[in-house]
Amino acid sequence: ILQEANRVSSIEKRIKHITEFLNQDGRKHIFTKAFQHYPDMGHDIDLLLDDVITDKLKTSLNLKDDETSFLNEIAEKKPFILEDNTPIEFHRYIGHFGEYKELTRIFIENSVSRNGIIVLRREDQLILQVIQRLYSHFSIRFSDILLSIKILNSEIDLSYVRETTQKNNLYSSLVIFVNFISRNYGEYISNRDISLIVSSHNSVMPKRSGHIYKYSKLFVINLYIKKLFYALIHLDLFTLKKIVYLPFIFLVSEYKNLRNR
Length: 261
Hints:
Shape: globular
Strand order of the largest sheet: 1-2-5-4-3
Number of strands: 10
Structural class: alpha+beta
Helix content: 40-55%
Order of helices and strands: HEEHEHEEHEEHEHHHEEHHH
């Protein structure tokens, strides 16, 4: 317990140090997951940075290059190691493929300061939960359920959440996510305004596997096919040039799964 407490304290100090440097340098940023499951700080630091990573930044923060991947290159995600061996990932855009350019702008514009740390406003944190759980991890953990209930029970503007997800082709996924929370843990949600989002229609439900609820591969593929067609119809070249690599990445992932069996 003491060892974990020391690790959490070390990460907190790192986040404060990074914040001070970025603020002095005038760099817009958000710690997207910091303190959301506090005192559990996770195993790494995720930072959304509205800027390029310069040599000055790497030197000032003592960043060492970490192993990367083809997907990271597409998403413009840069992994590093801090001097205390804590992993840190710099994200240029939101999304598994870094495909949400406009939503990234909105998140940064709406960001708030809590205890001197720049984080997401609660509404945007809920939207990010949808993106991360359905489009990146394809699963929902109990910690995510607890966080989502906490957000839904706070003074949250669900009209904003609905409108923002509608404009960014995420509304149907938001409904799926909130329906899951409501139907399985609705007794813990006190916010009656949730009716703005919850649907009475049949909704895709993940299957429980131990302490995690997992979505099927077919469901995930369907999500990305819809995303691809939406980008094509709206001539969203930024998104298209990102997710066009999806079939290749999927095949590589399946190949690795077969090798590990």
